[in-house]
Write a sequence for this structure.
């Protein structure tokens, strides 16, 4: 599936333009450049942007284009930096010591690598996605500085160092919800994925609906960008909602040029009641 | 030469660290900028700018540096841009012309550009010497010039200059007024995590300790998950001089009152200045006395006041000064009520929609000496939130603000 252009990693280490977008992912020139800079300098790529602008999808496609495995680390509000490296399952060990099955002396058995731990101990180069880093505690990124710099970590319980054979390509996404610490930012290559303009959006939609007719696409985008321009909207519809909406329109065979009055399947585009009301009010006025 | 650009960035308040600058040097040594201005723009921005709110400053710095126009000369640039915005048809270049401009390098181009800018007195179209539209000069746009600097106007691909010039990221600047989402994000910082409520999360450390105490008999301990404990009291000035900001205040209210955001959230209204009471509704029907409000509020709750703090000094400083206060016949000046509130809460903040350049010499300054005050922008809100959560630096109040203390009834701020 991923026929994304890529230069082979080994024989041409200086080749820069390794990522040019793929069949299933449309990247702006600026985004492609940022990705390539990050890969060439082996620095983490930090992506920010509105929800649904394809941050997560980029990591998947980058892995595909580079021909590397993807390791995902989905960060939640309770995630600790160390969880990403490894977890020492004390409870299981206690349990085993109490109920006697298994060799409790073998601590390694109770060490479970987290996603980042896996990425660093892999025997080949991988793409590591740290998704939605801003969801975690404010200090979370700082706790990863050392590991991201040195691409190694220490397992205290085993007294063992894990060192990456090849530096993974690290992609970090954030929804812009929180300020990230300066020390962390300094180490990253940063790109803000701006909301796609109409031309870019046309290409993105065509990836998902290759058979869409020009006129239909045009009308859909007209409505979509019109909605996004509504002032005081709480959650403006994003790319993924547009794609779903077009899907619904196609399935129901609705012709936007013909329907009068409201927007069909508005619920697919707008996710809060207030926004639906707001749009309804403006349509009446 | 490039180091000057670093200083240009600094001049635009972009604090590029040595770390980042070295990364840029490394990138350029590897040729990642593709030896083009466009490539340089992209590489430099990706490595040196880490916040979309700063993209615009970067664009400006880039424009300023590569067009060699200082901030004071910006007006000239605007003219040129406006003029270039309406390009003439491009004609094909002859091979000689192409060859001629092939070899120019960036420094030379900038030099030439500068020189031409100085020489050029009036609008010029066509020809091959001046900056204009549709010509073959290496400057201007719509012309063909492989090594040329593009100066504005739509082109085939998007060049760095165009991107910089479009200043697409203007609205992300931190100093512009806010929308609900931005306020929302800023308020997210206003949280104090604490463990409260139902016990539903495994507490490993306690489990280990308890199990040990239990001589190895497994004893699992649970604890409540972390939740936001921050409690907020929002006081909003409505009506009168606040009318122009009604929309902004309602956005702030929308974001702040979002359910589940704070452990406790209450909001009240006042007009102009707080005296002995505030109101639960903007129509001033449900009255709550300040005494009751304070009695019901923990010292650790956060008080956030939104208002322009702008009134006649007598309304703030005189006993019974309020024109809206006659019915109470109270003798306590507004400033004293404000002081009482500020003193009750461990941390309070005042958000003012008036730009801070208008503060000196007005009642704003006096109130700012009682309440730490921030201009209601993304930056100001961020500062206020940081202060409310962690304390630390309050905005400085000029010494002059002391005039409020020696108020004797005649208004003369200077
Ligand atoms: N550039 C793109 N090319 C192709 N599809 C895209 C692109 N951008 C977004 N999409 C579509 O939008 C969907 C959402 O993308 P994705 O989940 O990567 O967004 P995100 O930025 O990670 O959002 P969130 O911040 O909510 O996690 C994708 O599944 C895809 O269908
Ligand atoms: Mg995502």
């Amino acid at each position: 599936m991923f026929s994304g252009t890529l230069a082979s990693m080994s024989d041409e280490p200086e080749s820069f333009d390794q990522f040019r977008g793929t069949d299933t992912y449309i990247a702006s020139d600026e985004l492609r450049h940022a990705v390539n800079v990050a890969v060439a300098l082996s620095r983490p790529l930090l992506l920010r942007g509105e929800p649904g602008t394809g941050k997560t999808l980029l990591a998947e496609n980058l892995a595909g284009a580079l021909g590397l495995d993807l390791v995902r680390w989905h960060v939640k509000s309770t995630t600790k930096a160390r969880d990403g490296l490894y977890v020492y399952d004390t409870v299981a060990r206690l349990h085993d010591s109490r109920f006697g099955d298994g060799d409790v002396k073998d601590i390694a058995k109770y060490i479970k690598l987290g996603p980042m731990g896996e990425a660093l101990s892999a025997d080949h180069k991988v793409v590591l996605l740290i998704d939605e880093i801003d969801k975690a505690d404010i200090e979370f990124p700082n706790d990863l500085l050392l590991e991201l710099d040195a691409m190694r970590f220490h397992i205290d319980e085993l007294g063992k160092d894990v060192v990456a054979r090849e530096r993974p390509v690290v992609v970090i996404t954030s929804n812009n919800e929180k300020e990230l610490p300066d020390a962390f930012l300094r180490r990253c290559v940063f790109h803000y994925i701006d909301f796609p303009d109409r031309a870019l959006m046309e290409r993105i939609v065509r990836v998902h609906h290759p058979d869409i007719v020009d006129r239909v696409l045009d009308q859909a985008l007209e409505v979509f960008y019109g909605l996004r321009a509504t002032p005081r909207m709480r959650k403006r519809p994003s790319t993924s909602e547009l794609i779903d909406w077009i899907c619904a329109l196609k399935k129901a065979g609705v012709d936007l040029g013909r329907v009068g009055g409201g927007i069909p399947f508005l619920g697919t585009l707008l996710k809060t009641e207030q926004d639906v009301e707001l749009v309804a009010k403006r349509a009446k006025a | 030469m490039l180091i000057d650009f670093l200083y240009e960035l600094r001049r635009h308040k972009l604090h590029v660290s040595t770390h980042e600058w070295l990364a840029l040097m490394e990138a350029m040594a590897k040729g990642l900028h593709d030896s083009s201005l466009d490539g340089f723009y992209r590489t430099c921005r990706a490595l040196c700018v880490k916040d979309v709110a700063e993209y615009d400053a970067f664009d400006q710095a880039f424009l300023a540096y590569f067009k060699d126009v200082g901030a004071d000369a910006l007006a000239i640039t605007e003219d040129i841009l406006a003029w270039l915005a309406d390009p003439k048809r491009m004609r094909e270049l002859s091979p000689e012309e192409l060859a001629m401009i092939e070899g120019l390098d960036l420094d030379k181009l900038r030099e030439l550009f500068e020189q031409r800018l100085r020489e050029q007195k009036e609008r010029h179209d066509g020809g091959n010497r001046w900056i204009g539209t549709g010509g073959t000069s290496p400057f201007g746009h719509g012309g063909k010039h492989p090594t040329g600097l593009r100066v504005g106007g739509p082109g085939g691909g998007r060049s760095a200059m165009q991107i910089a010039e479009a200043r697409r990221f203007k609205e992300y600047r931190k100093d512009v007024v806010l929308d609900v989402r931005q306020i929302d994000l800023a308020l997210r910082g206003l949280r104090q995590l604490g463990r409260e409520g139902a016990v539903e999360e495994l507490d490993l450390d306690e489990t280990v300790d308890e199990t040990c105490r239990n001589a190895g008999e497994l004893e699992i301990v649970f604890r409540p998950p972390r939740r936001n404990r921050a409690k907020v009291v929002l006081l909003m000035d409505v009506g009168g001089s606040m009318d122009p900001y009604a929309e902004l205040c309602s956005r702030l209210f929308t974001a702040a009152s979002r359910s589940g955001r704070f452990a406790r959230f209450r909001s009240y209204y006042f007009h102009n200045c707080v005296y002995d009471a505030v109101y639960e509704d903007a129509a001033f029907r449900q009255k709550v006395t300040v005494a009751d409000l304070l009695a019901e509020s923990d010292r650790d709750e956060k008080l956030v006041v939104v208002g322009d703090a702008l009134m006649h000094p007598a309304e703030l400083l005189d006993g019974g000064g309020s024109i809206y206060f006659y019915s109470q016949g109270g003798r306590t000046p507004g400033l004293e009520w404000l002081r009482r509130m500020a003193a009750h809460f461990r941390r309070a903040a005042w958000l003012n929609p008036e730009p801070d350049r208008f503060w000196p010499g007005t009642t704003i300054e006096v109130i700012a000496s009682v309440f730490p005050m921030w201009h209601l922008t993304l930056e100001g809100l961020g500062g206020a939130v940081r202060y409310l959560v962690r304390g630390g630096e309050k905005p400085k109040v000029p010494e002059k603000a002391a005039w409020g203390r020696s108020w004797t009834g005649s208004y003369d701020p200077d």
In short: Residues A 25-26, 49, 51-57, 173, 175, 204, 207-208, 239-240, 243 surround adenosine-5'-triphosphate (ligand 1) (CB under 6 Å). Residues 204 and 278 of chain A are 28 Å apart (CA to CA). The two ends of chain A are 48 Å apart (CA to CA).
